[in-house]
Recover the amino acids of this structure.
């Protein structure tokens, strides 16, 4: 186990009469590795769900990364936690990060396998909402055309990256961060990527979908140069042979449909 310290600057405003003075207080970010863990049973085709509350990220590998591995039979997790606290109060950050580790669990039942990571509690100068899984690396079975993977991803903040998966895919990133996915839709599957910033999906060059829906803040943010014949609101390829639907919804950034 190791702990790293990175700074965060918080702005504070003080108002006096008609003037405004701004001061800054530096609060370090403390980072600690998460013990690796994996599901107890082999994946049998059920839904895999990732619920990562996460926190605001500062690069250095932060965010959520999900990799499909054709040789994997279980879901495995590694990564790190983070918390902010005053420079003289590392002990409080350690307590918040310990809380986060306790929230990181893999649950398994007949309906699916779920990985959950939440926020820690507040301790001293460490605020619970500013603690969480700063970086998660999750390995899942890839799925196949005959045994597709149903993957559901919910993230609270930070970039989300998914690659090497085959089946259906739902990603909802409701915080600050981009979504980047390389995914092969299975026949009859639904693929939906929704985020507040950039959204990018790479699919096979010969992909088919009965319905494609692309939306962004402005029409010029939509990029389908890799597939010049793609039109939002219509299908692509031979109907009934590929995905039932592909939906990309972005915000402050480009919405890109590209080839793998």
């Amino acid at each position: 186990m190791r702990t790293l310290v990175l700074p965060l600057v918080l702005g504070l405003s003080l108002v006096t009469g008609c003037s405004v003075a701004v001061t800054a207080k530096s609060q370090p970010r403390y980072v600690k590795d998460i013990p690796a863990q994996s599901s107890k049973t082999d994946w049998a085709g059920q839904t895999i769900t990732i619920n990562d509350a996460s926190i605001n990220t500062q690069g250095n590998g932060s965010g959520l990364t999900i990799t499909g591995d054709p040789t994997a039979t279980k879901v495995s997790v590694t990564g790190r936690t983070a918390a902010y606290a005053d420079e003289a109060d590392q002990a409080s950050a350690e307590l918040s990060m310990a809380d986060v580790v306790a929230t990181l669990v893999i649950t398994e039942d007949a309906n699916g396998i779920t990985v959950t990571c939440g926020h820690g509690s507040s301790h001293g100068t460490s605020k619970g909402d500013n603690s969480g899984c700063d970086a998660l690396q999750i390995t899942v079975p890839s799925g196949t055309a005959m045994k597709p993977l149903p993957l559901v991803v919910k993230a609270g903040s930070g970039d989300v990256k998914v690659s090497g998966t085959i089946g259906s895919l739902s990603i909802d990133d409701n915080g600050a961060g981009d979504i980047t996915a390389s995914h092969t839709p299975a026949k009859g599957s639904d693929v939906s990527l929704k985020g507040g910033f950039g959204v990018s999906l790479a699919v096979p060059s010969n992909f088919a979908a009965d319905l494609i829906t692309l939306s962004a803040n402005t029409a010029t943010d939509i990029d389908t140069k890799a597939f010049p014949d793609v039109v939002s609101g219509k299908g692509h390829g031979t109907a009934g042979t590929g995905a039932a639907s592909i939906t990309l919804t972005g915000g402050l950034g480009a919405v890109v449909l590209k080839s793998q």
In short: The helical segments are 90-103.
